Amino acid sequence: MWYLNFIILFYVLVILIQPSLQSNVTDDDTFPFRGLPVEQFFKEGPVRKLQLTNMVWENCGRSNDPGRLYSLKIHHTPLGDINGVFKVGSVVKLISPVKLNLEVRLKTFGTYVKLPCFKNILGSCTFPDVCKWGEQFQVCPFKPLRDAKFPCRCPIRKGIFQVSGEFPNPTTKYANSLTGDLSLTARLSYGGKHLSCYRFNVTLV
């Protein structure tokens, strides 16, 4: 579900509990509370869906980046799933590997604190090839992507995709740990070349 900027758009509400996309975990010298167990920051709680109540996004790359997010609107259905309308594109054809570097910061006592990578999927993690996620599907499982002819598998042709529709919002037992104001910076690259960078400031409840 996470190619191009689509990865960024729904990370907050989807990637949190996906077991099929694993990251490379390295010791992070920038983590401000070194020595404390990571579990102190990602505690299990009631299984529920996270809800997005506020979002502001910006391009943290260049205006001529190959991967582009043109527009984005997200709201929730009465059952808590995701209704998304977005326009994304790439001026280059993408082939595996497509790397995602994700930095997640949680606002704590007025300051945004970088979260570590937890269980290879939560927090600030690096995913060496998001194309691997799509390899498990012969048919894209999400109807809005199929309708937009947005592929769930690499390679991805260059072009612009307008996507609109409803996506499932999975439940997670770490919802309480991720409630609050977060800043997410997602950097995508392919073949060692920069693709795009977008930053999202969001509020989750």
From TrEMBL:
GO terms for cellular component: cytoplasmic side of plasma membrane. GO terms for biological process: ganglioside catabolic process. It comes from the Eukaryota. SMART domains: ML (SM00737). Residues 1-22 form the signal peptide. GO terms for molecular function: enzyme activator activity; lipid transporter activity. The keyword tRNA-binding does not apply. Residues 57-202 form the MD-2-related lipid-recognition domain. Pfam families: E1_DerP2_DerF2. Keywords: Signal. InterPro entries: GM2-AP, GM2-AP_sf, ML_dom. Transmembrane segments: none annotated. This is MD-2-related lipid-recognition domain-containing protein.
